[in-house]
C-alpha cells in the first residue's frame, strides 16, 4: 500500500510539475502578454501566463502558492469520490500540513475549516484556502511580477519579434 501511494505521489508530482510547462506550449502574443498587466484574472486564465508567473514565483521562493492553486483546480474537476479523498489528502499533506516544506501561508480560521472538512473531503474542501492564496498572489506577488525582469524581458522580446515580422 505504501509503494502504491509513493508511486501515485511521484506521478502526481510529475504531473503537477509538467502541467504549467505544457500549458505554455503555445507562445503568447504580445497583446496577451500586455493583457496580463491589465488584470490578475487575465494572467491566471492564460496557461502561458500562469507558467511565466510560476517561474517568477520560483525566484521568490513562493512557487508552492501556484502549485497549491493548480492542485485545487484539478481537485474541483474530479468526480470520483475515492480519487477526491486521495487527492484531498495529498493536497493537505503537501500544502496545508505544518510539516510540509511546501506549506502555504493560511490564517488559523481557514486551517480550522480545512481540518473540519478533511473528515469528509469534497472537491471544494480547499476553496477558502485557495481564495486566500489567490488573493495573496494577487496583492503581494502580482505587482512585483509586473515590475520583474522576467515579465519585462518577455514583453520586450515579443514586441521586438512582432515588429520584425
Automatic annotation (TrEMBL):
<dbReference type="InterPro" id="IPR016137">
    <property type="entry name" value="RGS"/>
</dbReference>
<comment type="subunit">
    <text>Forms a complex with G(alpha)z/i2 subunits and mu-opioid receptors; the formation of this complex results in mu-opioid receptor desensitization. Interacts with OPRM1.</text>
</comment>
<keyword id="KW-0472">Membrane</keyword>
<dbReference type="GO" id="GO:0009968">
    <property type="term" value="P:negative regulation of signal transduction"/>
</dbReference>
<protein>
    <recommendedName>
        <fullName>Regulator of G-protein signaling 20</fullName>
    </recommendedName>
</protein>
<dbReference type="GO" id="GO:0005634">
    <property type="term" value="C:nucleus"/>
</dbReference>
<keyword id="KW-0325">Glycoprotein</keyword>
<dbReference type="InterPro" id="IPR024066">
    <property type="entry name" value="RGS_subdom1/3"/>
</dbReference>
<keyword id="KW-0539">Nucleus</keyword>
<dbReference type="GO" id="GO:0016020">
    <property type="term" value="C:membrane"/>
</dbReference>
<feature type="domain" description="RGS">
    <location>
        <begin position="39"/>
        <end position="155"/>
    </location>
</feature>
<keyword id="KW-0734">Signal transduction inhibitor</keyword>
<keyword id="KW-0832">Ubl conjugation</keyword>
<keyword id="KW-0963">Cytoplasm</keyword>
<dbReference type="InterPro" id="IPR036305">
    <property type="entry name" value="RGS_sf"/>
</dbReference>
<dbReference type="GO" id="GO:0005737">
    <property type="term" value="C:cytoplasm"/>
</dbReference>
<dbReference type="GO" id="GO:0007186">
    <property type="term" value="P:G protein-coupled receptor signaling pathway"/>
</dbReference>
<comment type="function">
    <text>Inhibits signal transduction by increasing the GTPase activity of G protein alpha subunits thereby driving them into their inactive GDP-bound form. Binds selectively to G(z)-alpha and G(alpha)-i2 subunits, accelerates their GTPase activity and regulates their signaling activities. The G(z)-alpha activity is inhibited by the phosphorylation and palmitoylation of the G-protein. Negatively regulates mu-opioid receptor-mediated activation of the G-proteins.</text>
</comment>
<dbReference type="InterPro" id="IPR044926">
    <property type="entry name" value="RGS_subdomain_2"/>
</dbReference>
<keyword id="KW-0449">Lipoprotein</keyword>
<dbReference type="Pfam" id="PF00615">
    <property type="entry name" value="RGS"/>
</dbReference>
<keyword id="KW-0564">Palmitate</keyword>
